[in-house]
Design a protein that fits this description.
This protein is α+β, with helices and mostly antiparallel strands. Among the domains are: 14-171, Serine Threonine Protein Phosphatase 5, Tetratricopeptide repeat (Alpha Horseshoe); 378-509; 529-648, Heat Shock Protein 90, CATH 3.30.565. Helices cover 72% and strands 7% of the residues. The chain is built from 26 helices and seven strands. It has helices at 5-9, 13-22, 24-32, 45-52, 56-65, 73-84, 91-108, 113-130, 133-149, 153-170, 173-189, 193-209, 213-230, 233-250, 255-271, 275-293, 301-311, 315-332, 337-350, 354-376, 379-419, 424-475, 480-505, 514-529, 548-568, 612-623, and strands at 511-513, 535-539, 545-547, 576-584, 589-596, 626-632, 636-643. It has a five-stranded mixed beta sheet, with helices on one face. It has a two-stranded antiparallel ribbon with strand order 1-3. Strand 6 and strand 7 form a beta hairpin. Helix 5 (56-65) runs parallel beside helix 7, helix 14 runs antiparallel to helix 15 (255-271) and helix 23 (480-505) runs antiparallel to helix 25 (548-568). The chain is globular.
Length: 648
């Protein structure tokens, strides 16, 4: 669903996170400058010259007062002010100027996210130069939000840990609570709703302690969304009602918080199919937005109203609202607009208006293709490079931590031997420091495990995208051999994707449980050939774990053999079964057997297909230093023996 907040701030849903994390204090700044807000809105060179001639403090006051305006002159004035003090030793003013620029870019959302990140990183650098730890901690947290909006989850997590560490040193509980809330956002994006709820609850407890009602409501949004994702609708409703009550009773001026609360509550009602309540909440959110910023800027909220009307079967009325929202979204050139195009197309289809349904369907396809092309452009390099460098970075980080700890222990032993009697106090202090270091290492190890799981998750998603692209391409093909080759390639990609899925879902990041893997692989291949009802695949083996370098080639071998059997062993809808077994004879020897009770190879009949699958099996067998034997008796049986200690 494309949220109406987009029209209010010029950004998509993720901006709302940026706004309420970055800009809650800006409401207070805005109020304080209402009396001196510039009366000049004409965006021309004279205004730029007049503002930039003022002292830097006055320029900063103007920038804070005009955060929500001057979309043409604002960045020019900010950049000129930064240039004017480039050679002066004023890191504090530079930090404040970059901070205001980051806020402005984040608020208006008309520019690449890189612009926000650039100024946030500059802000952090100057506060670090000043040694202002409170500002450094806050800058780390804000930068984490910017990285999160840029989908740089690893970077976001890294700076969040730094922020938390500084907030703890400063004994700043509310700073810690804000960091916890961003961690909740991070885990939402990583599709971990339970962890998101846990961090949000930590934040809420602190915010309530200090009567920080606005921040409490923002943290409640995480509770609402995560519980909706998990299907805990009553809990989500309770959180939404609490949020609405807090705003109305404690902070009635936080109109945008109230708008989002109604909008999220409508999402819950759609999930529970309470469309009357959903429509009432959508209309209330739209009304509040219109009262706050006018009909034109609030127009995208009408897409939410149209969506609920679509569910109610009121297609003509829904189209009226959709078209109003689309007009606003098209001005913003939003990539998420394809969702609304699909919804309008569905409405026209239900009205039997095939012409308009096709028009909006084509518009949706154009946007989707553009997004897909952008993602696929660097697919191979991203999948391989991120995985390899990530794996190396994790290993190096772990080794560095262990080495550092080892050096500390060695220094401690030497100190104890020399100064045991006279430095008991120092020994106690050192032991306390060592325990703290162990805690840090444990935290780092947990962070490294999370990073490695994220790498496997991304590799699996990229392989899924490759599989989907192959499927789309093969659907257009008429030539049967070519189409079969594309389907075979699709299955090979799937076999590798399942491995990375098991790695990030399992408890052991270094090995694969092969029986479960074969069962998942078999289900996928049976589904590809639509053979679930005629062929049964049995895994006659005990649980066995293998490392990734061994599991990948074995998975590809089994994929080829299963594909070959399903294509040729059971002709004319004949039924049968295929058995897979994998076992370790000893520490160095692994045996694999794939047997079917199909028709087997027929003497004198030419081989079917390109032969690429057989070549691939042969090469993979050599890679694992193995031998293959084939037996044609009551079907086909192919067995392998691999030497694990001498794999190529």
């Amino acid at each position: 669903m494309v949220k109406g907040i987009q029209s209010l701030y010029g950004k998509n849903i993720t901006f709302s996170l940026t706004y309420f994390n970055r800009a809650l204090p800006i409401f207070l700044i805005l109020v304080s400058f209402n009396g001196i807000r510039s009366q000049t809105t004409t965006q021309n060179s004279s205004q730029i010259d007049s503002v930039t001639r003022m002292p830097i403090d006055s320029v900063l006051s103007w920038m804070r007062a005009n955060l929500y305006e001057n979309t043409t002159t604002y960045p020019t004035i900010g950049l000129k002010a930064i240039q004017l003090i480039k050679d002066k030793k004023t890191p504090l003013k530079k930090a404040e100027l970059h901070e205001e620029m980051a806020n402005w870019y984040g608020y208006h959302g008309l520019f690449p996210q890189d612009s926000v990140v650039y100024h946030s990183e500059k802000t952090l650098a100057y506060y670090q130069k000043l040694g202002n730890n409170a500002k450094v901690a806050s800058s780390y947290r804000v930068l984490a939000i910017d990285y999160l909006n840029q989908n740089e989850l690893t970077k976001s997590q890294k700076v969040l840990f730094k922020a938390l560490s500084l907030f703890e040193e400063l004994d700043d509980e509310q700073g810690m609570a804000n960091a916890y809330r961003v961690l909740a956002d991070l885990h939402e994006k990583m599709l971990k709703p339970e962890e998101a709820i846990a961090y949000a609850e930590l934040a809420i407890a602190i915010f309530k302690k200090y009567d920080n009602h606005s921040a409490t409501c923002i943290a409640l949004f995480n509770i609402i969304k995560a519980n909706t994702t998990m299907g805990e609708y009553s809990t989500a409703y309770k959180a939404a009602d609490e949020c609405i009550a807090i705003v109305k009773n404690k902070v009635p001026d936080d109109i945008f918080v109230l708008i989002r609360a109604y909008s999220y509550r409508s999402d819950i009602s759609i999930k529970t199919k309470d469309y009357n309540q959903a429509l009432a909440d959508c209309k209330m959110a739209y009304k509040l937005a219109v009262d706050a910023v006018g009909e034109e800027r609030a127009a995208t909220y009408r897409t939410d109203i149209g969506n609920v009307l679509k569910f109610q079967g009121k297609y003509t009325e829904a189209i009226h609202h959709f078209e109003a929202g689309i007009a606003a979204l098209e001005k913003q050139e939003s990539n998420n607009i394809w969702e609304v195009y699909d919804q309008v197309s569905e409405c026209y289809e239900n009205l039997n208006d095939e012409k308009n349904a096709l028009i909006y369907f084509k518009k949706s396809v154009v946007i989707k293709n553009k997004v897909m092309k952008d993602k696929v452009a660097n697919l191979e390099s991203e999948a391989v490079i991120k995985y390899e460098t990530g794996k190396k970075d994790v290993a190096l980080a772990a080794q560095a931590a262990v080495l550092e700890q080892k050096n500390k222990v060695q220094r401690l032993i030497i100190g104890l031997g020399v100064l045991l009697l006279v430095l008991l106090g120092v020994v106690y202090f050192s032991l306390k420091k060592s325990r703290k270091a162990n805690t840090i290492i444990s935290t780092k190890n947990a962070e490294n495990e999370l990073l490695l799981k994220e790498i496997h998750h991304r590799v699996k998603n990229n392989l899924e995208m490759v599989k989907g692209l192959i499927a789309l391409q093969s659907a257009q093909l008429k030539d049967s051999p070519t189409k079969d080759a594309m389907i075979a390639s699709q299955n090979r990609v799937q076999s590798m994707g399942i491995i990375h899925q098991q790695l990030y879902q399992g408890n052991n990041l270094g090995s694969i449980e092969m029986k479960d893997y074969f069962m998942n692989l078999s289900e996928g291949i049976l589904d590809t050939f639509n053979a679930e009802d005629k062929v049964k695949i049995l895994c006659a083996m005990d649980n066995l774990e293998l490392d990734v370098d061994t599991a990948v080639p074995i998975g590809l071998i089994v994929n080829e053999l299963l594909t070959n059997a399903l294509k040729y062993a059971f002709p004319k809808d004949s039924k049968g079964k295929i058995e897979i077994s994998l076992a370790k004879l000893d520490a160095q020897t692994l045996t694999l057997k794939v047997k079917d009770n199909g028709v087997g190879k027929q003497q004198g009949v030419a081989a079917i297909g390109t032969g690429f699958g057989s070549q691939l099996v042969s090469l993979l067998t050599q890679q694992l230093n193995g031998e293959m034997q084939e037996e044609i008796k009551n079907g086909t049986s192919v067995s392998f023996q691999f030497k694990l200690d001498s794999a190529a």
